[in-house]
Amino acid sequence: MQTLLIVGSGDVARRTLPHLLGRYRVFALLRDSSQAPFWRGKGVHPLVADLDRPSTLKRLAGLADIVLHFAPPPERGAEDSRMRRLLASLCRGKSLPQRLVYISTSGVYGDCGGELVPETRPLRPVTARARRRVDAERRLRRFGSRSGVCVSILRAPGIYAADRLPLERLQKGTPVLRGEDDVFTNHIHADDLAMLACAALRRGRPNRVYNACDDSHMKMGEYFDRVADRFGLARPPRISRSEAEKTISPVQLSFMSESRRLDNRRLHRELRARLRHPRIVDGIDAAWRERSKHGLP
User: Where are the alpha helices (DSSP H) in 36-160?
Assistant: First the structure.
C-alpha cells in the first residue's frame, strides 16, 4: 500500500478522506497538535510539523509516495517560503514522491476582462497573495521537470459549501457591484475540489495545470442574489465601482477587481471528473437542504 502525505490539513483535506482511506496509508502534517486526535480517529497518522520551521520537517524526507498539498503560502513576502522548505525536505530523502498534487488559485491569472480563460493563458497576478501562488507553482514545476516527479496543479476559484456561504455578508447588507461594473466569478464546491484532487492523483499528467471549477459562468452579483433568494434573505444593494472604492474594504474590493470565466474542458477531458455539483445553483440548493436538515438558518 502506498503512503500518502497530506500537507495543509484543513476543510478540503478532510473531505478527501473518503476517497483515500483503504487505498493509501495516510499521513497528515499538522501545525496544531490538538488536531491529532481527530485525524487519528479517522485512521490517519498525524505528523506534527510546521512549514515555517525547517527543523520540524526532517521526518518528511523519503516518507511519502504521494503528496496532496493544500497548505497556503505565508501571509507576507514575494515568494512561497513554505513551498521552498517542503521541497527541500522532500529532496533530502533516499526516494522522492512519485506524484504531487498542489491546490493553487485562479487568482494567478489576474483580471481577464471577463474573457474565457484556458490554462495556457499567461499569468498576470495582481495581488501579493496571488504572486506567492505563482512562485509556488513555478517552484513545483521546476521540481517536477528536474526530478521526474509527476506534478499536477489545480487552480481553484471560490470554494463554497453549506458552511462556506456568504450568509453573514448578506445579513449585514454588504453591497455588490451593479451590472456594468460587476465581474465574472467562478466557483467549486469543497466536496468537488476534494474529489478533483484525488482524481489528479490517478490521472493528472506531469507538470499539468487544471482549472478546478464547476461549469457555471456567473457574475458575482448574480451569485449573491441566488444565495439570498434560496435562504430567504434580502438581495444585496448594488453600487458603482467608484462607490465601492470608498465604502468596501481593500480585501473585499480586490475580489471585485478581477473578472474571468474559467475554461474547465481540460478537467473533464483528462481527469474524467464527474462533478457532484456541476452548476453553482445545484450547490446552493444542496447547501440549503443540508443546513435545513441540521436545523441551521
Answer: 36-41, 81-91, 128-147
